[in-house]
Specification:
Layout (H helix, E strand, L loop, with lengths): L3 E5 L3 H13 L3 E5 L2 H10 L4 E5 L7 H11 L5 E5 L4 H9 L4 E4 L4 H34 L2
Parallel strand pairs: 1-2, 1-3, 3-4, 4-5
Length: 142
């Protein structure tokens, strides 16, 4: 099953190149150049992972991460930045980011992290489904 990925980055050329490289690797990739477009994409689709730029003109990655985690708490988010700082990395991880990588990201390492994000999301969904089934079985008296 192809990994569904949302790439959020304001650098159009970077976004297109990364999207193409991930698509070649069999991933189902959507892109957003602005925070507004990213919010619309999140409302319209379900993703295994989000690769998010830390520096964007309309909203920084930390604020976008907060917004994503508020509306989609189980979403796996990998932050990418060309200007990594230890503080930003620690803050991102505390807010629930799955990982934090520097640009230019090694495509093999990023692909591996996306596959791990998909697996982690599947475990979360399975646990939620199991809990729902158990709750139904307890309340229905079959």
């Amino acid at each position: 099953m192809a990994e569904k990925v949302l790439l959020i980055d304001d650098e159009k050329e970077f976004l297109e190149a990364l999207s193409e490289r991930m698509t070649i690797r069999g991933m189902d990739v959507s892109t957003a150049e602005t925070a507004t477009n990213a919010v619309s994409a999140l409302s319209a689709g379900d993703y295994d992972a989000i690769v998010l730029d830390l520096q964007m003109p309309d909203m920084n990655g930390i604020d976008m991460l907060k917004l994503i985690k508020k509306s989609h708490p189980d979403m796996q988010v990998i932050l990418l930045t060309g200007q990594a700082t230890l503080e930003a990395g620690i803050q991102a991880m505390k807010l629930g980011a799955m990982d934090f990588m520097e640009k230019p990201a090694d495509i093999e390492a990023l692909t591996d992290k996306i596959k791990k994000a998909q697996a982690k999301k599947m475990v979360i969904v399975e646990k939620k489904t199991e809990k729902k089934v158990n709750d139904i079985l307890k309340t229905k008296g079959w």
